[in-house]
Every structure is written in structure tokens, then in C-alpha cells.
User: Fold this.
Amino acid sequence: MGFVPADAEWYLAELMQELTVEEDSRNVVWRNLTLVHANSPDEAYEKALSLGPAGDTEYLNPSGKAGDYSFSRYFFYGRNSMMP
Assistant:
């Protein structure tokens, strides 16, 4: 990990999510940037890990087809650093 000041309180998590719909070969993928408040990089990392799966959702679209928002991947940034 790169340099993280001792007084750092904010970290950046990048979450990739995917939308799939039943009987549709297409999908949509997007990235959400989220600020994470924590007392250490390790605490921020654990909080970031819980954000992705918390957004998983299944639903029926207006055509009655099942859709699924799912967490694909995350990146975690702590002041110029990235963790896989």
C-alpha cells in the first residue's frame, strides 16, 4: 500500500456492479465511487468489502422479467493506493 497519513479518515472504494435481465443476452456494468469513513486502512477495507454485496438486488421489471443487480468487483483506494 502507498503512503497513508496517520490522520487519514476517508478512503475511496470503487464498486463494479452488473445488471442482467432474464432472456436478455445484454447486460449493463457500471462503477460506483463511495467514500468510506474509517480509523485505519484495514477498517476502511473491511467496510468497503461489505458495501458490494449489500447492493445485490433481484426484481421484476415492467415486462415481468427477472432482473438482477449484482456486485462484480471492488477496488479500494487509500490516498493514492489500490488494493485488489
Q: What stands out?
A: The first strand starts at residue 10 and ends at 21. The beta strands are 10-21, 27-37, 57-60, 66-77, 82-83.
